[in-house]
C-alpha cells in the first residue's frame, strides 16, 4: 500500500489525499474508483473539488480494524492514482 | 432554487445534502453533476458515500456573495436531485 495512506485510530480508518493537474484527471479517477466500489461493494467516504480527492476508508461498524478487503481496495486505488502528483 | 439549499456566510456559500436509495442513484447523480461542472466550469466541493452527497458552492475568491452562474448551477443540480429523497 502506498505510503500516501495515513492510518488513524478512534475510529480506525485509512485516509489519503490525491492531487490532479486538472478536472479531467480528477473526474477520470473518480469514475474508476466508482467502478471499483460497484464491483467490490466497498464505499469509502470521498470528498473532492476541481483538482483534489480525499478518500477515507472507515473500518466497518463495530470492527476494531480495517478488513483485508478494504486494504486491498486501498491498494487498487493506488494503481489508479496519478504517478506524478504534482498538481 | 430548492429550499433544501442552505445559504451561509463567512465564507459565503450554498450547501445542500442529498440522500439516495442506493449507490447506483448516488453514482448517477454524481456523473450528471460532473457533466454540469465540465460544461459550466463551476466545481463545487462535493463529499459523498454510498447513499449521500453533500454539495458546497463557495463564493469565488474575494467575492462577498455567490454569482448568478453559481445560483444557476445550484438550480440545475436541483433538477438532477431525486424527487422523493427518502433514502
TrEMBL record, chains A, B:
It holds the Pfam family Pterin_4a. It catalyses: (4aS,6R)-4a-hydroxy-L-erythro-5,6,7,8-tetrahydrobiopterin = (6R)-L-erythro-6,7-dihydrobiopterin + H2O. Its EC number is 4.2.1.96. InterPro entries: PCD_sf, Pterin_deHydtase. One of its GO terms (biological process) is tetrahydrobiopterin biosynthetic process. Coiled coil: none annotated. Keywords: Lyase. One of its GO terms (molecular function) is 4-alpha-hydroxytetrahydrobiopterin dehydratase activity. Belongs to the pterin-4-alpha-carbinolamine dehydratase family. This is 4a-hydroxytetrahydrobiopterin dehydratase. It comes from Ectothiorhodospira marina. The lineage of its organism: Bacteria, Pseudomonadati, Pseudomonadota, Gammaproteobacteria, Chromatiales.
